[in-house]
Amino acid sequence: MKKNDITPFDMQKKPVKEKWFLTPIKWALAFPDTLIRRLKINKVNMEGLKPPYLLLATHHAFIDFKVQTRAIFPHSATYVVAVDGFIGKEWLLRNVGGIGKRKFTPQDKVLFKHIKYSLETLKVITTLYAESAYSVIGTTAILPDSLAKMVKLLNQPVVVLNMHGNFLTQPNYLMPKQRKIKLKADLTQVINKEEVKLLSVEDIRGRIEKAFEYDEWQYQFDNKIAIKDKQRANHLNRVLYQCQNCFKEHQMEAKGTKIWCNSCGDTHELDIYGRLNNVNGMTKYQHVPDWFEAQRAFVKNQLINNEYLFEDEVYIDSLRNSKGFVRLKNGYLKHSKEGIHLTGEDFDGPLNLFRESNSLYSIHIDFNFKRSDGKRADAIIISTENDTYYCYPINKKDVVTKIRFAVEEAHKLIKS
Prior knowledge:
The chain is α+β, with helices and mostly antiparallel strands.
């Protein structure tokens, strides 16, 4: 292996304005898809606002980028993009304003400088998908503690783009062919430049969190969006991994329109409006996020009672740069209340990575992701400043959602 094959991604490179010749291509890619889905953009407090400003966007699916392009038209922007987004297209992403970032790493001073440079020197809209990854279940993810502090320091107007229907178009746990769901988006200036100076960090955090609230399942039901896909419940077990009848974990299966427990047989059907109905008796949770959050509460109790522990052998891919994944030898992943610990063999010696719970408010997970050997599996992703490790559990099934719960709840418990 050549040394330059594992040179870390250059995080120091400053963002640039979008090249003029790429702008019409971007519009050509964004407009047809959003027109087909009859995108409606509701602008609130946007009168008279011109770039630069900080744009914070919810994150549901790939179509988010097309919705954002329509929402800020005819203006261009810079974008904070995870390193995996640059694979095979670094030149393109750099030249449409991409700013590189590794997900869920400790507070990034370099990233802050790039955002500040983009706003103050380039004077363009600067976009941050603050949830850092596609929504796991179609409801708001935890936002970083540092976000409100960063907003205060940047001293620029803040706009939130809250998108509706995008998750339904292509749920992260399922990733079907994109459905032609009607789309809506709220583009709201939540803090103007004068208010940034006056508001406390806590007030800023409160405004942003309120503007970020969404529930795609409730949106589907309220708007009677019928999803008649006969495979609509496929892989729902990736996020609803614990039976709410017998409480056994990792025994769920989902196929077609049904999800059931292999241990006790309890079965639910997902109707065309996204509601769960128990086919054998009384339904405990019709609303999918309620089942999802019940699992979180279970994990929290396990942590409080010192009953939580995950351990498994893992297949490891390293992502040093935009050239792609490089296979490492199998390693071992352990997660407890204290933190997450990955051991194995790196390029230049032993791999011994430990992230304490107080430094990790959430963690990136991916479903059915393509490994370097071409096979697909669920992944837990852990980043350092110079590398990102995609870890695929080898022996245990449907565990990544629980690990994400445990990371988030352990962080809350330790911080409190």
